[in-house]
């Protein structure tokens, strides 16, 4: 007997509700609903339009029905809503690209040294980690009035069911979780003056958190906590056959790394800015955040959204590695004027600024592939995890040029797909909680493999060209610093 499952997957560029039909040996899915997402500037602050997202979820659940067996939600990480004593939302959640955290990590590290934080959380310093957002919000009337903080998927889950929980994979991106024990670090909270009571109890993926409330209009359906961090679900959806793989989860961001059984909390890993994010079934994603297709999205927006396929074809015809930028540079986090900022980064590092959109797109994709190479190699070196294949999942798996360049840069085969890996991972964790499928991550991944068309890219060209480009970039970056 099969089940019908709704996987709600909210990415930074679009939200989607996927309807899955799953039996022990079969997985089918169709897109029930997709809606746009992105930052909304209100005054000086960038927000998410969280009620529009909630409406998109409701529309999607109704479209995925009429009879659902369960629902699960994942979204981008780190962001949250605050509830007051009556349970009302205190303001629109702030977007992680907002400038309020500029300079905040240094101020926090003056109170708790970065090395001490890393020793507990194992988290890469990104200015938007929840810990820094909360530090930026200290002293605001909103935070003073807040009685509960819920991360975005948990906030939506709360509105759908009434439950108040924090799913642990997403909690690991807050900077307030102990990566070894998978529990809140109350010590870090008190050291930074963050009220412990703000945080809801933790649940592991696979826990039923409640049932849809009547107003949702989709029946009394269980809501299951999944890997609610989209990257956690995406890595469940990686169709790997062994542990010897690296993943590049490419959408708005590229999340690049390996899967481990335990965190690596070394000083070398901290210096290299690697994160230990918690995964499904007790796993750890040892990865680096690379700026991702945000660079391309923002260029397209600036150019009035021209046809992407034509532009990618033109970029494929451009000479490679003419100019590359550091796709890990936090300077690219804010929105706006991306073509000019990339051109300026090229000039600043003594390279020719790309003269046409096609050349600029080639520069972006070369830079991403180079950053993928760096992160795959460093993840493997720093963790000791052998890598013999790179899995590219997410929207970027559709970008043939990016997949080929990633294979060339890594000197390893790339297996691309599924595009909707996060929805797969989300749905399969629900199916297992319902008892329809059994086994661990290898069994879930076998189901992904059997139900998806994957594309394999063999590495081409001279790998030393990528090594030289990496060395040049490192030298230029340190020279220009
Ligand atoms: P997110 O979940 O962060 O919103 P997605 O995983 O949906 O991101 O990926 C979105 C990205 O996928 C787009 O920015 C675009 O670069 C890429 N993409 C989507 N469709 C195509 C396509 N047909 N060809 C090439 N790239 C594509
Ligand atoms: C990708 C993602 C990533 C986070 C970023 C904020 O969607 O969840 O893993 O670092 O958004």
TrEMBL record:
<keyword id="KW-0684">Rhamnose metabolism</keyword>
<dbReference type="GO" id="GO:0008993">
    <property type="term" value="F:rhamnulokinase activity"/>
</dbReference>
<dbReference type="InterPro" id="IPR018485">
    <property type="entry name" value="FGGY_C"/>
</dbReference>
<feature type="domain" description="Carbohydrate kinase FGGY N-terminal">
    <location>
        <begin position="6"/>
        <end position="237"/>
    </location>
</feature>
<keyword id="KW-0547">Nucleotide-binding</keyword>
<comment type="similarity">
    <text>Belongs to the FGGY kinase family.</text>
</comment>
<keyword id="KW-0067">ATP-binding</keyword>
<keyword id="KW-1015">Disulfide bond</keyword>
<dbReference type="InterPro" id="IPR043129">
    <property type="entry name" value="ATPase_NBD"/>
</dbReference>
<feature type="domain" description="Carbohydrate kinase FGGY C-terminal">
    <location>
        <begin position="246"/>
        <end position="433"/>
    </location>
</feature>
<dbReference type="InterPro" id="IPR013449">
    <property type="entry name" value="Rhamnulokinase"/>
</dbReference>
<dbReference type="GO" id="GO:0005829">
    <property type="term" value="C:cytosol"/>
</dbReference>
<dbReference type="GO" id="GO:0006071">
    <property type="term" value="P:glycerol metabolic process"/>
</dbReference>
<keyword id="KW-0808">Transferase</keyword>
<dbReference type="Pfam" id="PF00370">
    <property type="entry name" value="FGGY_N"/>
</dbReference>
<keyword id="KW-0418">Kinase</keyword>
<dbReference type="InterPro" id="IPR018484">
    <property type="entry name" value="FGGY_N"/>
</dbReference>
<dbReference type="GO" id="GO:0019301">
    <property type="term" value="P:rhamnose catabolic process"/>
</dbReference>
<dbReference type="GO" id="GO:0005524">
    <property type="term" value="F:ATP binding"/>
</dbReference>
<protein>
    <submittedName>
        <fullName>Rhamnulokinase</fullName>
        <ecNumber>2.7.1.5</ecNumber>
    </submittedName>
</protein>
<dbReference type="Pfam" id="PF02782">
    <property type="entry name" value="FGGY_C"/>
</dbReference>
<dbReference type="GO" id="GO:0004370">
    <property type="term" value="F:glycerol kinase activity"/>
</dbReference>
């Amino acid at each position: 007997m099969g089940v019908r499952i709704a996987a709600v997957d909210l990415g930074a560029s679009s939200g989607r509700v996927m309807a899955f039909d799953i039996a022990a040996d079969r997985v089918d899915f169709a897109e029930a609903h997709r809606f746009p997402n992105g930052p909304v500037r209100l005054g000086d602050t960038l927000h998410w339009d969280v009620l529009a997202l909630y409406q998109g979820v409701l529309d999607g659940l109704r479209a995925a029905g009429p009879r659902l067996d369960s629902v699960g939600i994942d979204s981008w990480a780190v962001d949250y809503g605050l509830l007051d004593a009556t349970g009302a939302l205190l303001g629109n959640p702030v977007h992680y690209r907002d400038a309020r955290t500029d300079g905040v990590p240094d101020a926090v590290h003056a109170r708790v040294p970065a090395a001490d934080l890393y020793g507990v959380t194992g988290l890469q310093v990104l200015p938007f980690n929840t810990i820094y957002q909360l530090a930026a919000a200290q002293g605001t009337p909103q935070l003073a009035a807040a009685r509960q903080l819920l991360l975005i998927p948990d906030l939506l889950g709360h509105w759908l069911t009434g439950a108040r929980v924090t799913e642990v994979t997403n909690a690991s991106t807050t900077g307030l979780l102990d990566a070894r024990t998978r529990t809140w670090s109350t010590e870090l909270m008190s050291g930074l003056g963050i009220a412990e009571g703000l945080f809801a109890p933790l649940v592991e993926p696979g826990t039923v958190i409640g049932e849809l409330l009547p107003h949702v209009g989709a029946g009394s359906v269980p809501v299951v906590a999944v890997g609610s961090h989209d990257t956690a679900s995406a890595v469940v959806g990686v169709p790997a056959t062994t542990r010897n793989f690296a993943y590049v989860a490419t959408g708005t961001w590229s999340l690049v790394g390996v899967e481990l059984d335990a965190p690596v909390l070394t000083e070398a890993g901290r210096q290299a800015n690697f994160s230990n994010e918690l995964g499904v079934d007790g796993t750890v994603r040892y990865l680096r955040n690379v700026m991702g297709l945000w660079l391309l999205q923002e260029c397209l927006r600036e150019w009035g959204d021209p046809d992407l396929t034509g532009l990618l074809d033109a970029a494929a015809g451009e000479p490679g590695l003419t100019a590359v930028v550091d796709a890990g540079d936090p300077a690219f986090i804010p929105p706006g004027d991306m073509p000019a900022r990339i051109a300026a980064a090229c000039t600043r590092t003594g390279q020719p600024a790309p003269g046409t959109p096609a050349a600029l797109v080639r520069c972006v994709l070369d830079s991403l592939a180079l950053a993928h190479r760096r992160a795959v190699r460093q993840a493997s070196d720093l963790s000791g995890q052998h890598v013999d294949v790179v899995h590219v999942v997410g929207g970027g798996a559709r970008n043939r040029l990016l997949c080929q360049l990633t294979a060339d840069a890594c000197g390893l085969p790339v297996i691309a797909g599924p595009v909707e890996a996060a929805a797969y991972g989300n749905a399969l964790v629900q199916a297992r909680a319902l008892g329809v499928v059994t086994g661990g991550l290898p069994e879930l991944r076998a189901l992904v493999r059997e139900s998806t068309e994957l594309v394999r890219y063999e590495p081409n060209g001279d790998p030393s060209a990528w090594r030289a480009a990496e060395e040049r970039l490192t030298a230029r970056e340190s020279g220009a610093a």
